[in-house]
Specification:
This protein is of the alpha/beta class. It contains 14 helices and 10 strands. The protein folds into 2 domains: 231 residues, Spore Coat Polysaccharide Biosynthesis Protein SpsA, Chain A (Alpha-Beta Complex); 157 residues, no CATH class.
Length: 419
């Protein structure tokens, strides 16, 4: 890693109209940063984009056309700068003004998002549906789920330290990489900042990626981003809500045990106890599944290790056996009394019947805990092993070609370093 260099890393697909101007903007924007700039494009073009880029001093990584997220993944082993700035080469993001990103990174932030809504949006630069519905709504959902206060989660212009880029361990192959990158930064407790940017209308003759792909493309991209957002927050929808549902069910079951409690004109008896049983089992299953999800999406290994310790096999199975024994007592009392009544249900058995429902709950909890202990014994070591494998040195991809610049190099910075 070169601590005197910032690397501008952008994917390109047939950007011959804008690539020369974009590279000039990058050089201009880097002059006041105190760093030298290395411009790298990850190219899958069929036009003259890579040749023009090299003539103007950019490095080119030629990759097969496999998706926007995959392009970034393919380029990560070749990143050399201290900081990395991401964006598009269509001249809609103003790379003449990258100094605010560098200033925030120098201040100690790990990840810096651009915000078109805090800055300016040129007339015609963004479809009205995106500007007033798509982006604000999905940003609101993201903030609600992950507890952030961002204003533009879909902004493609963003910057981060090279160390942070490696820690994110991107996996998404397409548009959802943008959400994956941000939500992983949140989960890793990275320091995140946001800076206002200018969003410009695309130059005449240049079609956006969505325009090239058809009217359905932005909807599919939005859906993929939401899918990534919700998938990586599976524990958010399961863990805490599961606790609430389980406590509600247990409360209802306890209220129904005497059979004399009246709530809103309804006497809580056996039916209420059965509803409480159902909610309690559902809630517990949500909690345990949420714990597994939090381990699977753990990016540091700390969460998986913590839950693995708390649900150690011997301790968890021992608790399950104890619950099963305690739960079997009221069930046994009811079955004995039921047999003594000639297997005819009478009013005298009502209380024992409701107590048996509580016993059934403890027995079901016992089975769920024992099953969970078995699953955790498989999941957590697997998750930790995957983490280790991902950080091992990857073999070179023979489909990737790295091309050096043909033209002038980047300008000399105040530090005297050139790229």
């Amino acid at each position: 890693m070169n601590n005197q260099v910032i690397e501008i890393l952008v994917p390109t697909l047939n950007e011959s109209i804008t690539i020369a101007r974009f590279i000039e903007w990058c050089h201009e924007g880097s002059r006041d940063t105190g760093y030298s700039v290395k411009i790298t494009i990850i190219d899958s073009s069929t036009d003259s984009t890579p040749q023009i880029a090299r003539i103007h001093g950019a490095h080119v990584i030629r990759v097969p056309k496999r998706g926007l997220g995959r392009a970034y993944i393919d380029s990560i082993p070749y990143v050399q700068g201290k900081y990395v700035i991401l964006g598009d080469a269509d001249c809609t993001y103003d790379f003449r003004n990258i100094e605010p990103f560098i200033r925030e990174l120098d201040a100690g932030n790990d990840f810096v998002m651009g915000s078109r809504f805090r800055g300016t949006i040129e007339a015609g630069a963004m479809p009205l549906l995106h500007q007033y519905f798509g982006t604000p709504v999905t940003t609101m959902i993201f903030n609600l789920v992950y507890g952030t206060r961002l204003t533009d989660i879909h902004c493609g212009m963003r910057a981060l330290t090279t160390e942070a880029l490696h820690r994110l361990d991107l996996q998404s192959q397409s548009w959802e990489y943008a959400s994956e990158m941000l939500l992983k930064a949140v989960r890793l407790n990275m320091k995140i900042a946001e800076v206002p940017i200018s969003f410009l209308r695309a130059p005449d003759g240049r079609l956006t990626h969505h325009q090239r792909s058809g009217w359905l493309s932005p909807w599919l991209a939005g859906w993929e981003n939401l899918r990534a957002m919700f998938t990586y927050a599976a524990d958010y929808f399961l863990l805490k809500p599961g606790v609430v549902v389980a406590l509600l069910g247990i409360t209802l079951l306890l209220l129904a045990l005497p059979g004399t409690v009246v709530l809103i004109g309804i006497t809580l008896a056996l039916n209420a106890a059965l509803i409480g049983l159902t909610l309690s089992v559902l809630g517990m299953q949500m909690v345990l599944t949420g714990i597994i999800a939090s381990c699977v999406y753990d990016l540091s290994g700390a969460t998986a290790s913590r839950w693995h310790t708390r649900f150690a096999y011997s301790r968890t199975v021992g608790l399950g056996i104890a619950l099963a024994v305690v739960g079997s007592l009221p069930c046994a009392r009811f079955l004995i009394a039921f047999a003594e009544q000639g297997f005819v249900f009478t009013d005298a058995l009502a209380l024992l019947n409701r107590e048996a429902v509580g016993g059934v709950l403890l027995i079901v909890y016992a089975f769920l805990l024992c099953i969970h202990a078995l699953v955790m014994g498989v999941v957590t070591p697997l998750v930790l092993r995957v983490h280790r494998l991902r950080h091992e040195t990857a073999q070179p991809d023979p489909t990737i070609e790295v091309l050096e610049p043909l033209g002038r190099m980047g300008p000399t910075s105040e530090t005297g370093v050139t790229v």
